Amino acid sequence: MAGDMADNVILVGFMGAGKSSVGRLLARRLGRCFVETDDMITAKEGRPIPEIFTAKGEPHFRALEDEAVRLLALKRGNVIATGGGLPCQEGRVEALQALGTVVWLSGELATLLERALRGGDRPMLHGKTRDEIDALYKSRVPYYSKADLKVDTTTLNSDQVAAEVLMALRLRTGPPHPALSPSGGEGSSSS
Ligand code: S3P
Description:
Blueprint: E1 8-12, H1 19-30, E2 34-36, H2 37-45, H3 49-72, E3 79-81, H4 92-97, E4 100-106, H5 109-118, H6 130-144, E5 149-152, H7 158-173
Parallel strand pairs: 1-3, 1-4, 2-3, 4-5
Helix pairs in contact: 1-7, 2-3
Bound molecules: shikimate-3-phosphate.
Shikimate-3-phosphate binds next to loops.
């Protein structure tokens, strides 16, 4: 698949899916660099995501995501966590697939929301009713569904999700791929 050329592993999914924590674990286990599109945006703008939304609005944030995706083209062999809304536009998942293997961290919405509300400020959830959040989630599923691999995180912790992703990547690539082996031959399962 063309996506294997750049050999990145790209995590997508709704808020609360665990993209950041799982991505960090995966990167450590694979001996790769970890990149987050939200961090790229925060660094560029010099302020946190909620402030970007407040000061400049969602359209500006989405434009920053477009730019982050263009910059991802420079990445090779990284683990990349994307913001929950980043893959949700026409052609975007395909653009990510040109950069590597796209993995959807899925889950039951109630569980994802519980995690998201526990884990920091999510401007996309501000002032929204549960019905509105349901609608947002449903509108995004068709994009996430285009991913190459899917791991249901509902009943798993980050360690378990990372292990599932590793297994799915190995199954997909067949015999052990040097780039997908734990660095230095260590299982590094301790963290
Ligand atoms: C967003 C998700 C956030 C962040 C921004 C917008 C979204 O990332 O990119 O607040 O539209 O779902 P997480 O998915 O890491 O929470």
